Amino acid sequence: MSTSDWLRTDIGTTTADAITIRGHDLAGELMGRVTFTELAFLLVQGRMPAEGETMLLDAVLVSLADHGLTPTVLAARLTYTGAPESLQGAVASGLLGAGTVFLGVVEDAAVFLAGIVAGSQGDVDLNAAADAAVAARLESGRRVPGLGHPIHRVEDPRTPRMYAIAEEAGVLGPHLRALELVAAAAAKRTGRSLPINGAGAAGAALADIGFAPEIVRGFALLARTAGVVAHLAEEMERPLGMPLFRYVDERLAEGRR
């Protein structure tokens, strides 16, 4: 195998006078003509999105940009407190904690729902597949991804809006439908109704517009980067990290007395 057989990329190339992204001239065809949302879609899927796909992807990115002083944001702020010369380190630390509790649910839900959709044909089978998947999950003692939220205990305000946008855009597909069936099945089996959380709805939406479940967490990170940068900009103007450190240190000192 020659080097040229594997040392290549289909995403972009650069020459002395041009940059090409997925076959499009960056300066002449993309800059000033497509949004960042459309570009992100093009980069990953290799094609320009349809209008409805752009609407839903944009809604997903907006929905995941920020959720207040989460542990991941606190990690970013505290990293900046210790290393203000390393903005990139602070941003990175704010993304590294995206897992099964915060933000990573986007991927967990997409993977879970993909299994349900793959094992069904039509809405009747989808309902049965959702119920079986929920039963298996509960019997193994694991949480059902995409359900429940520590703050939005009754309804996550992002969820009904996500469904409305998907419906309006004509891209409400089997993963979003499956997620509703999952919520109903879980409520029936546990006797406890948990809301569909925004991260779960985002994962289902991304799967419905063609993104592989294994890559959707990347879009959650892309969205949250904007929020983390905003928190770091605020940290520069109104520091929270150092007062937080001092508060914790003082409480610990009191406990040792």
Number of structurally distinct domains:
1
Secondary-structure element pattern, one letter each:
HEEEHHHHHHHHHHHH
Coarse structural class = mainly alpha
User: What is the β-strand count?
Assistant: 3
CATH architectural category: Orthogonal Bundle
Strand order of the largest sheet: 1-2-3
Low-confidence stretches: none
Mean pLDDT rating: 94
Question: Helix content range of the residues, please?
Answer: 55-70%
User: Biggest sheet: strands, sense, closure?
Assistant: 3 strands, antiparallel
Q: What's the helix count?
A: 13
Structure described in brief:
With 257 residues, the protein is mainly α. 64% of the residues lie in helices and 3% in strands. A hairpin with a 2-residue loop joins strand 2 (19-21) and strand 3 (24-25).
